[in-house]
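2024-03-11 09:14:02 DEBUG pipeline.ingest accepted 1 chain
2024-03-11 09:14:02 DEBUG pipeline.ingest length=227
2024-03-11 09:14:03 DEBUG pipeline.predict start
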Amino acid sequence: MKINDYLYQSESLLNTRRDCVLTIDLIDYEINDNLLINEEENTIWAKSLISKIEFEDIEFDIILDYSVIIHSENMKKYGKDYIKLTYSKNTTILEVSLEIEDIKKRVGYVERLLSGKEIFKDIDHLLMKLYNEFKGSVMDLIHLETLVSNIVRDKDNLSKPARLNKQYNPTLINMKEIVFRGGGFIQSLAFENIGKSINTGLISDVYDDPSILEKVLTGTIVEEKKK
């Protein structure tokens, strides 16, 4: 069996290639806010989807752990037990809710920032792009300023945030590389590229004071009192 013989995706839409019936068991949606039926628009919004789809020759479950909008011009509710939705071939069954696309967009943006791949004119521009991306979320401007102040590094010493240099000279860098640009050998070992950290420890002639991460790793975060 190939799923593509029965269903296909186009952008954020899931469509059927054959006639089918989708069944939603209402027992799975005892909390009303998890399932909202709009009879005027023939749609159902589900916080997450637990359902069964039946074709002429096969049936299987469709379970999606994110919100969706289910479409159907032929919707029948069987008391408080379940809903059946009938589809003709080449019609849309559901679409991914816009809020999921927004989350994916935000995650992608943060990933570009942390990997040093985001394009920006200056730091004010970078901060406002980040603010506009997360506007209306739980992230306020203080949180975003803190994030930017840590990902923007000093070009002359990439191990330090640019804000610590009186001669402000900012740049972005892949945050996974920060541990190899200063600090100690032990700190870099805590990250995924162990081979590179060993090489850095062997050839580097620069060693700053132990970072807070190194102190945690070695159990020396609290200095012993001198006797």
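2024-03-11 09:14:41 DEBUG pipeline.report The chain has a mean pLDDT of 76.
2024-03-11 09:14:41 DEBUG pipeline.predict end
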